[in-house]
Amino acid sequence: MKQILDMDATELSTRIKNGEITSLQATLTYIEHLKAANERINCVTVDRYEAARQEAIRADLQLQNGEPTGRLHGVPISMKDCFNVAGMATTSGLIHRAQMIETEDAAVVKRLKQEGAIIVAKTNTPALCFCEETDNKLHGRTNNPWDLNRSAGGSSGGEGALMAVGGAAVGLGADIGGSIRFPSHYNGIVGFKSANSQVDDTGNFPPVTIPEQRRMLGIGAMGKSVRDAQFIHEILTDGKRKFVDLDRYEIVIPGKQPDIPLGPDTEELLEQLRGKIGEDYRVVDELPPHFHESALYWQELMSINGAKHVQQLMSEGGTKSPLTEYVKEKLTGRSDCHSYLSSALLGAGLFKPSEERLQQIRVALQQGDQELEQYFEGKILILPIYHEAAQKHGKQYSEIFSIRKTYKKYMPYIAYANVWGLPALTLPIGTDKQGMPIGVQLISAAGHEDALFQFGEWVEEAIYSYKRCTSYDL
Length: 474
Fold this sequence. Notes:
The protein has about 475 residues and is an alpha+beta fold. About 40% of the residues lie in helices and about 15% in strands. The mean pLDDT is about 95.
């Protein structure tokens, strides 16, 4: 059982096809493990355990009969509860969506199913995936497996927690403001945010229709290895791996910035990483172009129209007021809307950019895109995810969603890849003194994904790799 829980999708797929492990064995192992672990970490929203068991039996019969198989044939995976899966609700943490059963798969789900993947469960998110702490009124709060008193991050927090305990071979998340990278960092897993428009987001809820926001969205794997991140990315994009000469790349690692917090444990691990990388690669200490303004751009872009399009989704009929729901929740605790969402929507109204300001940002983005494409030719940027490891529940929310605009201090590292639509690979590099995982992100321009994956594999081999949390093993 423990061997299966430790396996990534690449290895498990090979072993199933070779007949060393059956799909049914793997599927039942993950199901039993999730049943036990979920009682304490609360990562699963809706399971499809019986359907997955039946699909695993069919997958094994197909192999026995010599029928054609896909690259993920019989491999159990998990799915963030923002992607439509036919026959399941896509709740996004909202009570009124609990019985809204989808009839079609999201585009990414179709691709993974076509390759033979078996979805065992959907995983928890904040309401409407709108903040970095996974808690909602429908499914409750997801806890970090390494310390239940700490956040699993968000919005793919359920996915991050599930992968930390090895609850599936691989999972899938979406990221418009750190939603893959925060949970990957907090839970000690590998995560990949794709670049602008590289992955079809049809069937993602809530839908991202505003162009300036859509450019910030990335979809990718959350799992146990860099090779799985690349494997899933190839499936979602019809890509094929190309090996690159990493000796032609500079590795850019900016030093500590005076106006951005960076905890001592995170700083120490980054310096150790810098030293180790410097033994084999040329390391440059500099900030990439447009770094300091990116957090402001991110907040303004997320606040376009005061996020009215999100507000309309928070209740059936779209008639509820964020202010009314926030006050109701604080006074009575009986709002259907979590205060994290209503408060964040109030903030979006306060930070809404004027049409003139939005036009200024559009011009800056157009110019910056061209500049960064040139800058990242032959460069890989390494940034922290956050200033420290997983925090106590609610702390990160208070740091980012504050009327005092503290997001300018806490979001620069995360916002950069979103604002500029860049691919970002997150991987763990160690733990803090309390044993909590700490990760970094590798960033380059679209088209340099193979360099990110190849360098990420070097980091896994030379420095640190995924360690499964075994506290919930039977």
